[in-house]
Hints:
The chain is an alpha/beta fold. Helix 1 packs antiparallel against helix 7, helix 4 crosses helix 5 and helix 10 packs across helix 11. Nicotinamide-adenine-dinucleotide binds next to helix 8 and helix 9.
Amino acid sequence: MTTSPTLARRATYVAEEGDGPVRLGARLGAGRKSPERLHDVRNPYDGRTLASVSTCAEADVWASCEEAERHLDDDFPQFQRSRVLSSAALLLSESQNPFARIIALEAGKPIRAARAEVARCIDTLRLSAAEALALSGEVVPMDATAASAGRLGLALRVPIGVVGAITPFNFPLNLVAHKVAPAIAAGCPVVLKPAPATPLSALAFADLLADAGLPDGWLSVVTGARDEIGAALVAHRVPRLISFTGSCTVGWSIASAAPDKRVCLELGANTPVIVEPDVDVDAVAERVSQAAFGYAGQSCISIQRVLVHERIANDLSAALATRARHLVVGDPLDELTDVGPVINAASAQRILSSVREATDGGARVLAGGEANGNLVAPTVLEGAPRDGRLWSEEIFGPVVLVNAYADFDAALSMANQSDLGLHAGIFTNDLSKALDAARRLRFGGVLVNDVPTFRADQEPYGGVRASGNTREGPRYAVESMTELRFVSFAAPPR
Ligand code: NAD
């Protein structure tokens, strides 16, 4: 199969060296309703303009919602929805490099990590295609009570309605796929609002789905530099479910703004990992360093807090600091780069000011602690105060805290000492400690002998407490995007 001209146009435009910025419309099922205005999408590494993208207005959001609503009763059965998703997986597997390049350019993600994101997106599509086929309901045992005996009862899983999807900048392809693909599997048309900094992957993905056979009107992408269009999507009467991934502040404000909708929140974290003294320190340091500094720490499950047993604390800190100093920081398109820029100058400033606050509170800088433009040096801080901002909030930058503990109970309570609870990790050879951690760490996921930065696309992924209220992963997202309709059959009255 060859790539269609539409896909090739979208997916390669930023891959063409020497060309000026490309002008891109939003993908609006209902067509454009507001006067044409554009905003620039820039490369966070060098500030170069990559594309000029439509700035949608509220009217475009409203029209997209109404267009999506018109498709709710389309004849688009499960086998066809699955086929579209499978074809999209195939098309994407043939266009991995251009998609990776778009991610690297607009999000500043090192190209090797960008390729890994594309590979994961192919899996997300495949898993969603399988869920589209598996979607079913169950038989309700009507004979279980005298009142209902003699009837046949079914609990059907039906689509919840139009899905409003709002996504962050840091996984501009796979997190879009984690919302759009399960929605298609569930039978829900989607209005997607990607992050202002990274709309190009979303637009290319929408074209990919169109090329794979997604009917017109099933997916609109409303782009724009203003957060107001996200708010307009949340406020509109049509979307029955808002699927949001992003920061805690915005996420919880959406939940209170839409009490009449199902609001699924995937939010931030300040991920801890516990390191017991019975492990290979160098091997663990290598894994932790990749998980803390890869993509400049801009993953919701980047390791932020390393809790290490005091017997190996100095060795682990030193091993991490050495690795931090040797990582290649620079151009995301360079194959050798480990750490690219953070998304913008404001983020770099915010990260540095948090580091300053920690050092003012007594933390020692073992590596990094400075920035060159948007390139923040991988930073290792030892002994950061546990009542400070860095301990309790999300840094979202290449900064890791190393704090020692004396006994295992203390390690568990240090890990739990935060309102955020997405993933936590533990490295140990002691099975009873691993089991104890799985029971007592109050997180959405506990990873044993793995960095907590690892996410399997099929896992029930999501946070507890302030980190969210839902689980993504195609099977679980499809469950959220459907609701049960009870149907009872009785014999006609005689
Ligand atoms: P953000 O919260 O600033 O923005 C996320 C999206 O919300 C963007 O599309 C933005 O335009 C939109 N938005 C902003 N204000 C809005 C409003 N009032 N109403 C509706 N939409 C609005 O997040 P970000 O900086 O793009 O991404 C980083 C954050 O995302 C981090 O906190 C990170 O931990 C989190 N994140 C979580 C997960 C997860 O699965 N739990 C995954 C990736 C990122």
